[in-house]
Amino acid sequence: MQWLPTLETLVTSLGTHQQMLAIYSLVALFLVLQDRRLQVLTLIGQYAVIGTIKGMLLLRPYIWVEWGIGLTVSLVLFLSASYLEHAISSRDTRQRPASMGPGFGLAVFSLSTIAARGLGNTQALDGLSNHVGELAYFLMFVGLASVAMLLNPLRRGIGSLIFLNGFGLLYISMEQGFFVHTLLGTVHIVLALAIAVSASVSVSSQHHGDGADHR
Question: What pTM was estimated for this model as a whole?
Answer without folding.
Answer: 0.84
